[in-house]
Amino acid sequence: MRLVVLGGGESGVGTAILGKQKGYDVFVSDFGKIKDSYKEVLIKNGIDWEDEKHTESLILNADVVMKSPGIPEKAAIVKKLVEKGIPVISEIEFAAPFTKALTIGITGSNGKTTTTMLTYHLLKSAGLNVGLAGNIGKSFAEQVAEDKYDSYVLELSSFQLDGIINYKPHIAIITNISPDHLDRYDYKYENYIDSKFRITMNQTEEDYLIYDADDEAISEWLKYNKTKAKLIPFSLTKTFEEGAFIKDNTMEAIINQEEFKMETESIALEGKHNFKNAMAATSVAKLMQIRKATIRESLSNFQGVEHRLEKVLKIQNVQYINDSKATNVNATFFALDSMTTPTVWIVGGVDKGNDYNELMALVREKVKAIICLGVDNRKIIDAFGNVVDIMLEVNNMNDAVKMAQRITEKGDTVLLSPACASFDLFENYEDRGRQFKEAVHNL
């Protein structure tokens, strides 16, 4: 069996290692450059590879192809594979049959990283032998090759879900759905929504789907489509006989006739959206029969995720917050919504077709100044130019932070929450967040 891996990054190299271990004839092809560290791993494992090209004669003879999530379906080589009827799958689909481990799959436009990390924290604190993979850290395939975990918490993007055929998580979570990556879905929101719901398409009556019952797109889909999984909703406004909800400043989760309660003020993560992430993670913990005391302790000591509403420093009574992971409008909505002091907002980058109107009421209420950090800021200036008193443009992070410091007063907050991708001025959102933190520490 010939396995061709498109893309020589984390998921590609991990898949190659697992494929080789399982007796496949493996070839890795990357149209870009493969990092030296990954080349070394491929060479050490005796795996053939090429970069900066796709040699069709070495690819179109595959029995199965694993496509890295970053490569679009529209890529010429992918179209040729599909025409030939060669299965093109994701790393998760390839690796899942080689493990008996139970998987918890988490997707959503926002909140999935926090929910994934929090769920992992809850299960690990309870002493479970659990791995963490998907969009985070070491590839799922490579961890399956090492075969040392009984269960995995997987953060799954819509691109990873597009490449599944038979994979099903025992527990699935959809945190929320808002327009994102529409450039990959023919600019049709319904295609993106369907893509997210692939997480439940193979689930059976034995499995669970945990979802945000306040989310319009999710509720609509569930109204017109069926899943066999047992549904477990969570909500900030509704209550359920089975599910999780907030009532009188208390989070309650009722699952399998067992009730769990915790005061919301004891939850380490702040903000309404984080209560949702906590309800989703708690629901998993209850399904995995983790003790109440362990759940309480884990929710109260969780540190949060880097680059997601991360408090960096307080300088002269001004709080600096790094929310670089907010790469779409919906994520920035959560960030602005959780601000309680006058805010200097650093925003901008590569626009994915953003509609800034959703933020208008929050900007009027909370934002005293906007600093645009992008190559092209026209849309942001058009949207908010008449709404805030101060609107500035910069083209590097140091200037953004220095400028912010100049216009703040005691008690203000400086919030980096870009609502955009980072590729115009930075390598990725992590690089953007690190540069922000460095600039703040250098003030």
Automatic annotation (TrEMBL):
Main location: cytoplasm
Mur ligase C-terminal domain: residues covered: 307-420
Annotated Mur ligase central domain residues: 106-284
Keywords for this protein: ATP-binding, Cell cycle, Cell division, Cell shape, Cell wall biogenesis/degradation, Cytoplasm, Ligase, Nucleotide-binding, Peptidoglycan synthesis
SUPFAM superfamilies documented for this protein: MurCD N-terminal domain (SSF51984), MurD-like peptide ligases, catalytic domain (SSF53623), MurD-like peptide ligases, peptide-binding domain (SSF53244)
Pfam family, one: MurD_N
Compartments reported by the entry: Cytoplasm
Positions annotated to bind ATP: G108, S109, N110, G111, K112, T113, T114
E.C. number: 6.3.2.9
InterPro entries per the UniProt record, alphabetical: Mur-like_cat_sf, Mur_ligase_C, Mur_ligase_C_dom_sf, Mur_ligase_cen, MurD
Catalytic reaction list: UDP-N-acetyl-alpha-D-muramoyl-L-alanine + D-glutamate + ATP = UDP-N-acetyl-alpha-D-muramoyl-L-alanyl-D-glutamate + ADP + phosphate + H(+)
Keyword ATP-binding found: yes
Function, as annotated: Cell wall formation. Catalyzes the addition of glutamate to the nucleotide precursor UDP-N-acetylmuramoyl-L-alanine (UMA).
PANTHER family from the UniProt entry: UDP-N-ACETYLMURAMOYLALANINE--D-GLUTAMATE LIGASE (PTHR43692:SF1)
Name of the protein in question: UDP-N-acetylmuramoylalanine--D-glutamate ligase
